[in-house]
Amino acid sequence: MGALDNVVLPGSQALQECSRGKSDFLRLERGLWERFNLERERTRELSMQVAAAQGVIGDLQRREQAAQEEARRSEAKLQAVVDKARLDREEFQAAAEKARHDAEELARLKGEHEALQKTVERIRRERQKAWQDRDAEKVRKEEAEKVAADLGAEVGQLQAQARELQASVARERQLKAQSEGELARLREALDAERTEHGALRDAVHVVCDDLSVVQGEGTSSLAARVLGTYRRAREIALEALRTGVRRAFGVFGSHYSGINFAGMSGGYAAGYSEAELDEIDASVLDPAEALAKLLEDEAVPPADPRAS
Q: Which domain holds residue 27?
């Protein structure tokens, strides 16, 4: 069997060649089929892309038509707006022209109105002045009438006063005769008053000299000297009071020793009622009178200043 391995039978080579050719054909056909399928797939994809592109192109064409239509409508609207703007400008120009004419007319009317107001104000002032002049004239007339009436009344009064003066002159003459006698009597009374005043002044001088009243600078009147005399009399009374109390304390000290003079200087001792104090005052009345009589020459000035 091993010897037959390299033996080629008749017809087998052709079969092999045929099989090899068939295999090559099948491989070639399979490659072609694969390329065909690939091309068909690519064709289908391209067809789909073309269909999609045609749809896009159709959509773009529709959009273009819509845009053109919208552009036409916009152009129409723009033209309408332009036409309206032109009409508005014409109307505005007409309105501006009318406003200018109205302003000129208003300025003219305003000027006329101001002139009319000035005229009215001038007429009002003139009328007011005329009224004032009329009132002033009326007042002057009334004042003149009043002055005339007053003058008439004054003339009557002057005439009455003249008659009264004549009567007064007669009375004055009579009174003058009476007053001369009265004047003589008053002169006599004045002389008597002067004499009495001189005597009173001399008496005041004597009292002031006796009481050692010093006349103040610039006080030469009798009233001032009398007031000074009163003050001096008060000082003398106070001095007499102090002297009497001092002498009484001395008398008490000469009779009794150990007296509380400091306590006595404060007045009555405490612990007594008003009735008891009255009894004490009544019991010392006579001794006090006797002591006062004893100290009278020392504490009280003499009754007649000239006797001292």
A: 17-114
